Amino acid sequence: MAKLIGPETVLAIEGLHKAFDGLPALRNISLALGRREVLVVLGPSGCGKSTLLRCINGLERIQSGKITLNGTLLSGEGTDWRKVRQRVGMVFQSYELFPHMTALENILLGPLKVQKRRRAEALADAAALLDRVGLLEKKNAFPRQLSGGQKQRVAIVRALIMNPEIMLFDEITAALDPEMVREVLDVMLGLAKSGMTMVIVTHEMQFARAVADRIIFMDSGEIVEDNTPEAFFTSPQTERARKFLNIFAFEA
Questions:
Q1: How large is the greatest C-alpha to C-alpha distance in the chain, in angstroms?
Q2: How do residues 197-210 score in pLDDT, each as one tens digit?
């Protein structure tokens, strides 16, 4: 069951339905996310996790339901998604960096071209964020000169420099070699500790347990469990969640 919507609610979703060619992908999704809360979304492949994030960020059109960000209705007609995406940062599996631009140039593109910020201010913010993720010395490197983990950290900085109200992460370690996963997860743990409001889709179970304030488990386009990390991993409420966790325990 979704949390009650109150003054500290950043994101509220009510009765969300999404279908592709008539086939339901999301069914009656309702949830609320509080300020500084970290929500982790778990579930089998194809259950609708990524589609949910893409609906929040306006990359997929919904058939019905409401999405509200800090009191602003996003799902109505005439939503300016270009402005919304300055408030809702998103990081994808693929880094989506421009190959002909340096790391710094990729990061500065949004604040300079979209937000029209002063270059000196944007440069200072970019340097501080790159330093925060351990990449300041790589600011003039091109994507081809960076490892997968480094490129993903640049992508995170590119989203953060827009000063979003909420961050969405869609399986951002899925394309990384195992040794590169930790450096990206450490950055996200740091963001959680700093109070960033986040929705994270991941298959990294230990990370999910460590970073989440709350976990929702999805199956066949529905939320079938909404629980604390401790309760979800030790005594899940549903048989479907128990089977899911048993598979991961066996694979580990």
A1: 55
A2: 999 999 999 999 99
